[in-house]
Amino acid sequence: MSVPVMAGARPGPQPGHVYLVGAGPGDPELMTLRGARLVQGADVVVYDNLVSPAIVALAPAEAERIYVGKKAADHTLPQGEINRLLVSLATAGKRVVRLKGGDPFIFGRGGEEMEVLVDAGITVEVVPGVTAAAGIAAYAGIPLTHRDHAQSVIFTTGFLKDGALDLDWQMLARPGQTLVIYMGISRLAEICAQLVAHGLAPDTPAGVIERGTTDAQRVVTADLATLTTAVHSAGIRPPALTVVGGVVGLYPKLAWFSPRGNGDAPHPPHAGCAVVHPTVSGREA
After folding, report:
1. For residue 72, what pLDDT band results from cuts at 50, 70 and 90?
2. From the candidates 27, 48, 103, 223, which is the catalytic residue?
3. CATH of 17-130, one of 3.30.565.10, 3.10.420.10, 3.40.1010.10, 3.40.50.170
4. Is 70 known to be catalytic?
């Protein structure tokens, strides 16, 4: 893949700099042109678990590729060591591209890493990416705003730095909004219970999208009272995004994306929920 240089484009990666680049929510075609150009000129690519292999493959053959991905209870490198690695590479004069799934500044720890780099006197450029909330909801056919259902959107996380789930439940449970929860699958039962306890109706539409925007995408929808059971029955696993609010009721009417699938046997449908299974795609290759 060759990315064209647009008129007025900024220079490519420079020695001794770090580029915090959002790789998008999964589908490699959702990465920005700027991000792709920087990867193609990198000396070192430091990448996370959720970055598509097709994006990492854009790096030159001679470029060093360093995986620092994090999964639940499985961190290849602690965050402090990642910070020190970025400083070390840039100090050595490398063109460093730090690839992050989604957007670096939305639950991507980009702000933490940039603080450390700036304190070390290293220049940093941030390249935004399509965040999971926007990209994955769109591929699931769930509009995050809709005049009939939601006038605002809230992004939150189901896993805080200290492992606690001490959120502003009163604010999260307000009607007339869409709630998008990152990293919440392991705490889904508690999240649903808290939202109901703080005012949302048990029959509020809710859904979980696994590996959104990829050919392994699956969607489970139910309501707050039954979502946890439906997700467990479907065998949904991280990475997955949770969406709560009236807009979820528009699925499957607006579901347009048909994943190609990976040859696995589909899961059976479940009462009270709708599941999109990998099928032959209608998308162009």
Report:
1. low
2. 48
3. 3.40.1010.10
4. yes
